[in-house]
Amino acid sequence: MKLKATMVLAAAISSFGLVGAANAATELVIATVNNGHMIEMQKQTKVFEAANPDIKVKWVTLEEGVLRQRVTTDIATKGGQFDVMTIGMYETPIWGKKGWLMELKPDATYDADDILPAMKNGLSVDGKMYAAPFYGESSMLMYRKDLADKVGVKIADKPTWTEVKDFAAKVHDPKNGVYGICLRGKPGWGDNMAFITTLVNTYGGQWFDMKWKPQLESQPWKDAISFYVDLLKTYGPPGSANNSFNEILALTNAGKCAMWIDATIAASFVSDPKQSKVADQMAFAQAPTQVTPKGANWLWAWALAIPAGTKKADAAQKFINWSTSKDYINLIGKTNGWATVPTGTRKSTYANPEFVKAARFAPAEKAAIDSANPNDSTLPKSPYVGVQFAAIPEFQAIGLAVGQQMSAALSGKTTIDKALKASQVAAEREMKKGGYYK
User: Fold this and answer.
1) pLDDT 10s digits, 49-82
2) What does the buried/exposed string (b/e) look like for 378-399 if buried means 16 or more CB atoms within 10 Å of the residue's CB?
3) Is residue 308 within 8 Å of residue 183, measured between CB atoms?
4) DSSP-derived secondary structure letter, 16
5) Three-state SS at 158
6) Using an 8 Å Cβ cutoff, are 346 and 329 in contact?
7) Any idea what DSSP says for residue 287?
8) 3-state secondary structure of 23
9) CA-to-CA distance for 434 and 438, rounded, in angstroms?
10) What pLDDT does residue 167 have?
11) Which CATH superfamily hosts domain 139-298+373-433?
12) If residue 310 lies in a helix (H) or strand (E), which one and from where to where?
């Protein structure tokens, strides 16, 4: 009797052990930014977990600035707090080169060759991919075709800044609440400086020469900033020095901007009748060029990467395979509608007739992304990777300092020459501190 009871107990323990082992799923901790596409990805996590019952996903969702701070600290210390991180095109080449990220090795079904070349290149170091793009963007010109028709102007697919200024002059009508052009002015390395850097690039300028010497008092910078300040003071809305993406989006959707050059992601909002009073009138062209087409439009991606500190690399790779795949894009298209899919990452998205029909901005968006080259974005040769930024750790501090000076010049608190001189001094100080030169 005692032996039988012991056997039953042993069987029960063994059975419980098996059940316990089956339930011991790998917990994957993912840090991400609180934007719409990422929040939607969290809602779809159940689909991934159903296909991978041995993996449970835990989300840490943060505002952009806090996210950058948390993931940078974690990865630099190899803290292992996160198994998947949402990072951008700025961090990826820096961290990949330092060995802080694992090389991505998706399987054959993932079809890495379907990723748009500009995105793949911007997230790779020496041909190795260190992050996979969840959504990507460039910048382009969005304008009101009704106003162009009214003054008899045809906007070219690839306009020049001279043509843009001429159009702004013809349609600027502040008494009736229409401004010739709206552009970012709020200071920040990824804010006003994202736009301003593309303007400087197309004027033939660069951040640093091949010896890493800052070039902020060079002629192209003077020409570009003089043009920018004059353009916005004459044909922009009041308070432009405080305007960022969201402020200009609101102005554009209210019909107050004849033109806006900004992120391609904005096209889906300004052409949505639920959000924009002038949705039917909006048309799209490439970002304007001037001396050179190089670097005239920026390149950015929110991407997913695996930090070197994780002990769950296989599960992390599985999640990245799923969330940045063609299947995921199709899932969102079928669930929420094709106008809501994360764009800017895959060739197949732009070859999909359902997407092209739902997103009339798609051809201009893809052309902008395809033309951006982070490895060759300036007329003179530059030592850095990046279109609207330089992928070096010092750039955040430099970009912020210069952004504040440009905003001050725009608001009239300082002159352009003084702003550029102060910017040069700040940049030289950071670069010397970083040991780039003496």
Assistant:
1) 999 999 999 999 988 878 888 998 999 888 889 9
2) bbeebebbbbbbbbbebbbbbb
3) no
4) H
5) coil
6) yes
7) P
8) helix
9) 10
10) 98
11) Periplasmic binding protein-like II (3.40.190.10)
12) none
d(CA 237, CA 418): 24
Query: What tokens does 81 get?
Result: 């707090």
pLDDT of residue 25: 85
Find, among 233, 229, 234, the residue nearest to 169 by Cα: 234
- At residue 267's C-alpha, the angle toward residues 132 and 406, to 5°, is 85
**What are the angstrom distances between the C-alpha of 229 and each of 42, 216, 235, 390, 406?**
42, 16, 10, 23, 9
In Å, what is the CA distance from 83 to each residue of 71, 99, 128, 207?
Answer: 11, 15, 19, 34
Place of tokens 């003496």: 438
List, as one string, the DSSP characters of 180-241. S-B---S--TTTHHHHHHHHHHHTT--SB-TT--B-TTSHHHHHHHHHHHHHHHHHSPTTGG
Tell me how long the chain is.
438
> In the chain, what are the domain boundaries?
24-136+300-358, 139-298+373-433
- End-to-end CA distance of the chain: give it in Å, rounded: 88
> In 3-state terms, what secondary structure has residue 321?
helix
Tokens of 121: 């290149």
Q: Is 244 exposed, middle or buried (0-12, 13-18, 19+ CB in 10 A)?
A: middle
pLDDT in tens, 164-187: 999 999 999 999 999 999 999 999
**In sequence order, what DSSP letters do the residues of 49-97 get, joined into one string?**
HHH-TTEEEEEEEE-HHHHHHHHHHHHHTT----SEEEEETTHHHHHHH
Q: Do 24-136+300-358 and 139-298+373-433 have matching folds?
A: yes
The pLDDT tens digits for 76-126 are 888 889 999 999 999 999 999 999 999 999 988 999 999 999 999 999 999
CB 256 within 8 A of CB 237: yes
For the stretch 250-291, pLDDT in tens is 999 999 999 999 999 899 889 989 899 999 999 999 999 999
Q: How far, in Å, CA of 131 to CA of 129, rounded?
A: 6
- C-alpha distances (whole Å) from 186 to each of 183, 192, 206, 317 are 9, 5, 21, 37
- Answering whether pTM is above 0.70, one says yes
- β-strand 55-62 against 26-33: which pairing, if any? parallel
Which is nearest to 417 in space by CA: 287, 228, 225, 257? 225
Quick one: CATH architecture of 24-136+300-358? 3-Layer(aba) Sandwich (3.40)
